[in-house]
Description:
Cobalt-precorrin-4 Transmethylase, domain 1, Methyltransferase, Cobalt-precorrin-4 Transmethylase, Domain 2, Siro_Cobalamin_biosynth, transferase
Amino acid sequence: MNGLVSLIGxxxxxxxxxxxxxxxxxxxxxxxxxDRLVNPAMLSPFVAEKIDVGKLPLHxxxxxxxxxxxxxxxxxxxxxVVRLKAGDPYVFGRGGEEGQYLSQxxxxxxxxxxxxxxxxxxxxxxxxxxxxxxxxxxxVITGHRKANGKELDWENIAHQEGTIVFLxxxxxxxxxxxxxIAHGMASETPVAVxxxxxxxxxxxxxxxxxxxxKTVNEMQITSPALIVVGGVVKxxxxxxxxxxxxxxxxxxxxxxxxKLFNALQDEGAAVNFFDRRVKKPLAFDLPDFNAGGTLxxxxxAAFHYFQERLLTLGVDNRALTNWKLVACxxxxxxxxxxxxxxxxxxxxxKKLDYHRPVVFIGERVALSTYNAAIKADYIAxxxxxxxxxxxxxxDFHGIVFPSSASVADLYTGCTSDxxxxxxxxxxxxxxxxxxxxxxxxxxKNVIAVKPSYDNVIQTVKKVFSR
Length: 466
């Protein structure tokens, strides 16, 4: 049976502008075939196989014909396929051509619309595409045409009322302005160019038809960018958003429904994820619960696997009644509390009672850091396996580490060159223990923050306002 192919619009760039149906289809997908302009942060949460078929201007590493055949072949293997495109698949995204090809090959498909940059990209720069005082209509025109295509009907375009938006037109900007003026549009007509709309590196400039090419060259604005012509451009200064962390790009560990992600984005920052190490459960023996003693939880994942082992034996947390529960840091303490358990205290090796059993639970390698210093029993409930990160750290202004484990997750997955870049990035460590881990690994620009999201936001604002 052929699998469903979903042609999904990813929106202009901000991962939170994806539709709910688009998100659900990505969660259900076996394979995601995605374009160059899709934000990597949008792909991070999904476990499907990911295939990059991105196209650069004048360079297509995978042709459209190959993409069409790929979608058909994957569907015929019974896989659920997402074809993920920036913007909307049917607004100059060649989604119509892909849909035709799928239909001709009897492949079931659907279209999940996305926010087109022609509208959302303008809004991000403070330009409404319509306004009662300036435009009651709008026209969206592609800067690309088929190789044998005719010249655009400039006479018609130049005399249209309302807002005119050119997509994929940066290479044609000099020709666009020349043709519009030559066919009767006033040379003082307002024009704006918005680059990387809704991304962290969004930039926008405005001028008029006579001078926009000069302005764009002076400011070095290049593709991907959209061009907007019309009176609505006059509103850009008044309506352009100004948020405290706008233009900043942060790297954080992946977590589903991340509150840290939300907190940073709400202040205008762009956020991307690095992958956590893969956790593999281990077989282990449980301690003698009747004996009582001190149970030291070095990380919450370890305790999660510990709980799962209890439940398989028909036992729950009540088995720990005779045990003092100790959290290794504030993060573990908080996570235990979220799970309905209050830690008796935070870990301090000087306070341990060695007259009764002392048991550490944690990740296999991490537990070895305690072995030499403290005589106790150690239960490794899982082991972590490194994931190659493949992240261009040059694109980031800072990294936020909520835990020591997250520091190790990123560091161990980086190449030596990436570690060198990482060592000079601003690293915001949530708690002194996390800061110590950063410094132990040679990170030079470490900023310790009290472990709360609000403290992270306030500290980031102070650091980048200097």
